Amino acid sequence: MVRSTVRPSLAGRLAAGVTGAALVAGAVLVAGAPPASAEIQQSIGHETKPAQPYKGNQEPSDWLGSYLVNGKQVWCVQYAHLAPDTDEQYQPGEPLKTKWGTELPADVAAHISYLLLRYTDTADADESAALAHLLHSWTAAPQNAAQLDPAKSFREIAYDAPFHLAKLPPGAQQAVERLRADAVANHGPWTTKITKPTGAQVIGTPDTWTVEVRNAAGKGVSDVPVAVTLTDATVGGKSEVTVPTRADGSAAALEVTPTGPNPAVAISLLSPADKPVVQQAVQVDTQRVVSTGGEKELVAEEAVTAVTAPGAVKVGKTDAKTGAGIAGVQLRVTGADKQTPAVGQDGQPLVGDDGGALVVTTGADGTAAVPDLKTPQEVCVVEVAAPPGYEQGFDPGSPPSACGALEPGQTLELALVNQPNKPTVPTAIPAGEGPVQTTAAMSAGGPSGGLLTALGALVLMAASGLLFLFKTARGKQVVSKRMRRDWGH
C-alpha cells in the first residue's frame, strides 16, 4: 500500500495538502516525542508495481500484506495513510468504519470479522496479500468516481480495487476469491452445541459426545479449535483438551470417560465479533490497524449422570447326594434382608408380576442368571418352594438361601444344595386276613435295627413252616408203607 516505506517530512505533508489544524497537531506530537529509532517492517505479503497514483505519492510500489508492530502481525485499514513502524503506539479503538467515517454494511462487517479470526495467523504470502486487498476494498472503496482522481491527496483518495488486483500474482488473485467466498459462506454470528449421550454413562467406560460450531446459515464450520474442560471425566486421560471441528464442518467427537458420578463437558471458543474493532494510532496520519476482529467467546456446558459398571448373579442349585443340577427350582432375588427386591442397573427394584422380588427358575443344568444389577450391593437368592423329591429338607420358615457382595463389573456366583427325600420300605409281610403293615425308613447306611428284627422273625417263621411240612409229609409216608404191608401189598 502507498506511503508504507517512507514517512514524509513536515514539508512533504504541507505539499500533500495537510490542513493547518492537522499541521499544528502533528507538530505538537513530533515536538513532544523522542526521536524514532524504529523502522517500518513489512511482514508477509506482496509488493506490487507501479503504485496507485495520487497527489504527493512518490512511492514506486505498493505493499499488500501485513506489518509487524510490537511483535504482532497486523493489517492496515486506512488506505494511503502512513504505514506503522515496529514500535508504533496504538490505543483501543472503536468499531471499524470506512475511511470516510461511515458505518460498514452489516454483511461487510461480518465478513471482515470472520477473515480476521481465521487468517490473522497465516504464514502464506498470497493469503496475507489477499486479506490486505479485501480490507482496503471494503473500507476504502470509492463512494464516487471523483475519489479515484489522481489529483486527490492521501486523505481523499479511494482504493482502486481492480487496479491493485490486476497487479497481484495469480496465486494471490485466486486467494482473494477464495477468502471472499469463505467469508460469505462462514461469517458470523456463530452458534455452538454439545450433544451428550442420552442415557447414564458408566464410570470407567467411554461414550461419545459431540461438539459442533455453526455459521450464520446454520451450517457446520470446519477446523474451529474448541477448548474442552471436563469435570468427573477425562478424554484420553486428560481433563482439559482442545479439539477442532472436522474438515467437512461436521461435529468433533469426544470419547468421554466418566471418573465420577456427575460427568460434565464445558467448551469455549472464539467466534467472529458482530462488528470488527480497530486500533487507533496515536500519531497523526498513521494508518489504523486490525489484527483480530474483536472476537467474542462462545461457551456451552452439558452434564449427565454416571453409574458404576453393572454386575450379574449366577446361582447353581445341586443335589447334596449326587452333585447334579436340579432343574425347575424357583429362587427369589432380594437384597441383604432377603425380603426387599434387588436393584437393577437403572436404579429400579427388580420385581415380578406379584409386585414382590423377582423370581427366577433354574434351567436344565440347575443354574439361573440375573444380569444388569446395580453395583455395589448385597444380593441374596432365596428358595421359594422345594422341588419334587426334596420336600423333607425344606423349612418354609427358613428356606435355603445364599448371599454375597456384588461388585462393579463382576459376576457373583452363589450355590444352594438340596437334600433328597429318604426312601421308605415295608417292615412286615402281611399274614392271614388282617392287613397289618408297618414301615421303617431306610437310612443312607442300610436297613434300620427294627427292620432287621422283623426280617429275622420272618425267616424263623418260614423255617418253622417248612419243618412242619416236612414232618407231616414224612408221617404220611410212614403210614402209607404200613398199610401196604398189612394189606399184603
How many runs of DSSP E, i.e. beta strands?
25
Beta-strand content estimate: 25-35%
The end-to-end distance, rounded to whole angstroms, is 170 Å
Structural class: alpha+beta
Our Rg estimate from Cα atoms comes to 51 Å
Q: Could you tell me the mean pLDDT?
A: 84
Q: Kindly state the percentage of residues in helix.
A: 10-25%
Quaternary arrangement of the chains shown? Answer: single chain
- The main sheet orders its strands as 1-2-3-14
Unreliable spans are: 1-36, 433-489
- DSSP helix count? 7
Please, how many domains? 4
Q: Major sheet, described briefly?
A: 4 strands, antiparallel
**How would the global form be characterised?**
rod-shaped
Overall description:
By secondary structure, the chain is of the alpha+beta class. The chain has 4 domains: 10-186, no CATH class; 191-271, Immunoglobulin-like; 311-418, Carboxypeptidase-like, regulatory domain (Immunoglobulin-like); 437-485. The chain is built from 7 helices and 25 strands. It has helices at residues 10-15, 20-32, 106-119, 125-139, 161-167, 170-186, 449-486, and strands at residues 42-48, 62-69, 72-76, 90-95, 191-195, 201-202, 207-214, 225-231, 233-235, 240-244, 252-258, 264-271, 277-281, 289-290, 296-303, 306-307, 311-319, 330-334, 359-361, 367-373, 377-383, 401-406, 411-418, 424-426, 439-441. The strands form 8 sheets. Strands 1-2-3-14 form a 4-stranded antiparallel beta sheet. A hairpin with a 2-residue loop joins strand 2 (62-69) and strand 3. Helix 3 (106-119) runs antiparallel to helix 4 (125-139) and helix 3 (106-119) crosses helix 6. The chain is rod-shaped and about 135 Å long. It starts with 9 loop residues before the first helix and ends with a helix. 31% of the residues are buried.
